[in-house]
Amino acid sequence: MHNPALQACGIEAQYVRVQVPVGQVKQAFALFAKQGFLGVNITIPHKFEALEVVDELDPLARQLGAVNTLAIRDGRLHGYNTDGPGFLRSVKEAFGAEVKDLSLLILGAAGGAGRAVAVQSVLSGCRHLVLANRTESKLAPLLTELAGLHDGSLAVKTCSLEPNNLAQMLPDVDIIVNATSVGMKADDAPLLPVGCLTKNHGVYDMVYRASGPTDLITQAIQAEARHADGMCLLLHQGAISFEHWFNRPAPLEAMRAGLMAAQG
Ligand SMILES: NC(=O)c1ccc[n+]([C@@H]2O[C@H](COP(=O)([O-])OP(=O)(O)OC[C@H]3O[C@@H](n4cnc5c(N)ncnc54)[C@H](OP(=O)(O)O)[C@@H]3O)[C@@H](O)[C@H]2O)c1
Question: Which residue segments constitute the domains of the chain, with CATH numbers given?
């Protein structure tokens, strides 16, 4: 999506993939700066290491606990997180709603992506939040952290992924976010009990699979619920990266077309 964006804006630059060994992010960033790179996207497993080695850390990246975008200006490394703001934009696009007006259930809230969505949702003033995780005990530190981000008026509930627990939470929820890795494989077991979605729910599956819709998205289609998959987040977090690098609006439609072409 970035090469079509560069082309659409007439910018003479290229987006390339570089594989960096774990533990060598600092050395890689120094090399990128020396070689005249303008910026970098950082993905699994480097987002946490990147946070430690930038010169300037954006306050939101600090709160979200990870850096996925680097802008290199005058040799200095500026670290950002575009997953959180990308989530807000993609929810607006997919569901026509602002996170501040929504009640959310986050499946896999204790993972890296789930935690970022939870923190961003609280910072945006969401109405109500349910945090669910396979290992429920892992939610305790996040719950403490979130308590420091709001004035006490937000009700945050937690539960496991056990079907009966989830079914009890669903009537009070607008959007269900899947931030677990379930759905990446075609034979993954369903996350939600069959028949528990209604057409009033929105389903946001952060997973994207080239081979076709995930089980969760299929369940949403069957329930006539609005839905979005991980491509939507990929697009919007990428657009925000572009804005950090070039200080101009991203050519969103060129990027969307590039993503769709790459998907085949
Ligand atoms: N679209 C995008 O741009 C985008 C961006 C970021 C992430 N993602 C996707 O989000 C997903 C999570 O990524 P991450 O970086 O947060 O990974 P992570 O930190 O490893 O977290 C994984 C989460 O999935 C849960 N999980 C794993 N296997 C499970 C299973 N069999 N049943 C139920 N829960 C299970 C884990 O629960 P436990 O705590 O119990 O282990 C944990 O909550 C991945 O699929 C990734 O591709 C997409």
Answer: 2-81+232-263 (3.40.50.10860), 88-228 (3.40.50.720)
